[in-house]
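Example record

The entry below shows one chain as it appears in the dataset: sequence first, then structure tokens.
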Amino acid sequence: MSARKNKKAHGIILICLLLLLPLFAFSKTYVNDASTPSLMRDSIAKELGWVGNEASFCGGYYIDQPFIFPVKVEKEKENSIEITGNRALLAQHGTSILEGSVSATRYGQQLTSNKAFLYRNAAGKLIAMDMIGDVHLREPNTLVIAKQGLYNFETKTKSLINVIYRTSINSSKKIVGATQVTDEEMQRERKITDLTAWGSAYEFSQTQNNVYEFEKTSYSTCPPTHPNWEMKASHIELDKNTGRGYATNARLLVKDIPVFYTPYINFPIDSRRKSGFLWPSLGVSNSWGPYVLAPFYWNMAPNFDMTLTPGLLTKRGLQLTDNFRYLTTTSSGQINMSILLSDKAFSEFQLAERDAFSNSTNPTIQAELSRLLNSSTTRKAFSWRDTSQFDEHWSSRVDFNYAGDDYYLRNFGSNLNDISDNQLLQQGELNYKGQHWDFTGRLQTYQTLHPIDENPVQNIYRRFPQLILTGDYPDQPLGLEYFINNDLTHFDIRNTPGTLANQPIGNRFHVQPGVSLPLNLPYFYITPRIQLAFTDYNLYQTTPTQTPNSIQRTLPIFDIASGLAFSRFTTLFSHAFQQTLEPQVYYTYIPYRNQSSIPLFDTTVNTLSYDQLFNYNRFSGIDRIGDANQLGVGITTRLIDQESGIEKVRLGIGEIIYFTNRKITLCNNNTCTDNPTNPDNHRRLSPLSAVVDYHVNPHWSVSANPIWNPITKQLDNTTVGLHYGLDDQRVINFVYSYARGGDILSGVPLNNPSNNLKVTDASFAWPVLNAVTLVGRWSQNWNHRHLQNLLYGLQYDTCCVAVRLVGGRAFLGLDPTNNNKPLYNSQFYLQFSLKGLGDVGSGDPSGLLSSISGYKPQFGQEF
């Protein structure tokens, strides 16, 4: 299981915050407590092997000198120690003295000094060594320099006095330690760019491998010449075996100014997970007021973990959220729950809305008001997502989302799967995939939210259940391909608040067998196909809408897809390309069958696009199969770079030629655009549909999919996009979207220009200075003259510290009770990251930043 996004699980007991800063005046003074002069820092940096380099991310790096072993170290002799010196006074018993370049070397570890005293026991066995003057303890990626030290040969423990140190603590590729450095790497000079901690201490000790303890010490991961932050503590332990660090009586200094104190802190030094408190989230919002969230991470097992987050929202009350994640041999998923008892702000909102809407005569508003007043002030939410693969054939998926009331998403937001405005998906499905047969069993419903101050939202039909069985047998005798689609679904629906008439519910059984004859030649293909669609409806609750209880529909479907493929090699602007020309023709014939009495369970009109020109049904779903006697024609050309194989340009254009009027419509009156009076259903030509993709260079690209109506000589809809991506930190996007009738305003006739959608969406992420990145997004609805989305942010990221501020507003809808005034959800985040220590802030804005296409936030990460 991957560690969670904040898997740097900072187990911390926060006893005192800024209120305890006065205690610093009474704290004990340690080595280097005063601000270290820059000349002394430069000297320390040089001793630790720091090499300045402005071109590197940290402004420099460390150099690890080679381990030169006097003899070849065999695996079984890795614990043997070789001691050398220029001069020696040796004794078989008692004390021996070595002077001049003294070294004690074992595999992966070396101690050197100017002078050493060797101690033997009564039997003459070497038991300890005192080292004096310029003592260096070296391990791969670790260096400790001291004035004197003691090494115990029996226990293999070490103790050094008056030290400065550095040790690599975090790497994105490996857990740092001697076992990760090869013999060849150890015996040559190496550049260290991993996140490295350094500091000074009165005493250093090592009682076991990869466990380092420091007394009266300092700790930082910044460059030693410019420590932006530093932690000073009575005791620090860095345990690379567990990937954790511990400190007591710890003070955090930023630019030598104390800003935080805690008697105990537990922090990560690599990417492994461990139980403990995470850094709290502190902030202020209009919805919550001042708040604090204190998440606790529980590493239950290698494949299970949980994060419990108690929170105090001053405007609302006490909240508890829980995120449980699991990973098994067959399944992975997560469960999220949240509860807040006695929401004070929600209770006040209920009273305010009661006073505002109690006199309304609108039945929908009264129904929504009743839902609001009957809602509990205990706010809750639940979600479960699961993906399982039982074997090579069987799998399952679950995506279940629930909110306790209609206003939960507005007040709290969450990771609930809101598939469209105020529609929460609740779905589980079982799938089988075989060589010829595929099966899906599905339970699907939606929780529809009905806020009183937004445009009414219609409830959606539920599938309880849906059974789909498809079969495909290609390459049969004579080149034929046989296939069949079967669908059995039970539909149910709850009435939309304010609606009295019950909608039809019942069963739909659909069978659609077919046979095709694919004929493929090098430059030509043709595929005639014939299908028979049989659909049977057994309905009840039909009286209010005068719908028959039993409906049957049988339709033959005949289509022929054909096309040519030409190519040639050409040169444009001194560059070699392969150019293709691909005309396509698609003929469809479906006779007319009256379908006006069939209810609309899951069907709508497909938006016309270039690909839709070559689809036999202009409707999605099964409840409508359009009558057709038409010919779709299109032509596509591509330019393919001969060197890279990348498609440089793709241009396509086409339309449909209708030989008869379309009699099948989505609705039978003007309740929707696709009705019998729509003149588009009587025209002989469809709008022209085009597709444009142009990769100007490896960084710039342009795309568009315009639909132009030759009758009105106007665009029906289009999306034009411009994208620049130098890398995932330097991106620029601009998108313009237009759709005729795509933004229906309540109370405005369907064909009114006020319902046309006109939206621009511009976003970017760009480093403006060496360590500063700006991000932004502005999306505007120009037809209704309101903001759609606004995002702004600034990130300051160095090799040891990062800060980011991100804010934004998202359009929720128009308030029909207040002159269609726009409703917004505002968010603001402030985060700090001290790399090698942890993150703290008012939340994680990564979800907000994901709306900038192509941008991958790397806040607080090691580079």
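Notes for this example: The CA atoms of residues 220 and 230 lie 5 Å apart. The chain has six helices and 50 strands.
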